[in-house]
Amino acid sequence: MDAAAIKRSFEDSGLRCTPQRYALMAFLMECHRHPTAAEILEAVNRLDPRSSRATTYNNLRDLVQAGLVREVAVEGRAARFDAKGVHHHHFICDHCGNVEDLEWYDVPRPRSRSLGKRVLRECELIFRGLCAKCAPRGASR
Amino acid sequence: MDAAAIKRSFEDSGLRCTPQRYALMAFLMECHRHPTAAEILEAVNRLDPRSSRATTYNNLRDLVQAGLVREVAVEGRAARFDAKGVHHHHFICDHCGNVEDLEWYDVPRPRSRSLGKRVLRECELIFRGLCAKCAPRGASR
DNA sequence: ATATCAGATTAGATATAGTCTAACTACTGG
DNA sequence: CCAGTAGTTAGACTATATCTAATCTGATAT
Predict the structure, then answer these.
(1) Is residue A105 a contact partner of residue A125, using CB atoms and an 8 Å limit?
(2) Is B115 exposed, middle or buried (0-12, 13-18, 19+ CB in 10 A)?
(3) Does B32 reach chain A within 8 Å, measured CB to CB?
(4) pTM
(5) Closest C-alpha to B109, from B101, B92, B121
(6) How far apart are CA B33 and CA B29, in angstroms?
(7) CA distance B99 to B124
(8) CA distances, A93 to each of A57, A80, A100, A132, B83 (Å)
(9) Which of A9, A37, B87, B93 is the most exposed place for a label (fewest CB within 10 A)?
(10) Residues A80, A99: contact at Cβ < 8 Å?
């Protein structure tokens, strides 16, 4: 489908379009969960050619730096990744740690006075609670 | 100062006020940075009595569960902690990973339709960019 | 087409962050 | 004073991520 788009976005960032990197990006774009690095590695390795752990982490780092992928740190768990396609907020489940997308809406920025000399790059909203799967069970707590 | 307040808040949560736990909380309350677990351990161990790594992590976990301390996960770095005093947002520096407080203001909640069956507990805003110390250097990038 | 070489990949070693275990200690209520 | 519960501890262990050094690849110029 948009293989060409992926290739172009790599080149725009000065990154070669290697099979491993392409497979990683294609997986992230079609994947509607927010996989961990380990899950990404496993998924890519079901295809051909395979990729190593180091390469997966290298590529994730490069793609995050290029602004093509977003990394979401989760307390006490492995980081999650997603392709920065449509703008969205994140919901993190207290119980299972899963990260889910929530419809985007604009967020008011802080007053520039309170920012001081800081340089603001982005601004994200994180919701916490119980996901649809964990809510019934967790209700007892 | 508010030693009694700390003691009371522990008891309200069903936690004993032990010297190690008290020292941890007192340090977090007077500390205006957002220290990592390792920094907290080191600070507490400059006093008497000392605390161990396991105890520090145990106490941090208990205090987070009790809602007295907040944990902030940072991509690729150790988690940061702060005493949940005044409500505030967080600014995370892309370059040095430091977490800083930003004046609190209300954030619009998502429409309940998009939440579905999820149970919302809290909602925090995370700003990213370069802190005042890193901004000048990072400006070149 | 082919040579070139910066950029990419790899396995495995290493580092870092956090958790677990099992023995021990210290409060608390009776 | 005793029993029971909660807390502490050192050190082993696990999980996550990074580094190293050797090797390979693919875009570019020839």
Answers:
(1) no
(2) middle
(3) no
(4) 0.88
(5) B121
(6) 10
(7) 14
(8) 24, 13, 8, 9, 22
(9) B87
(10) yes
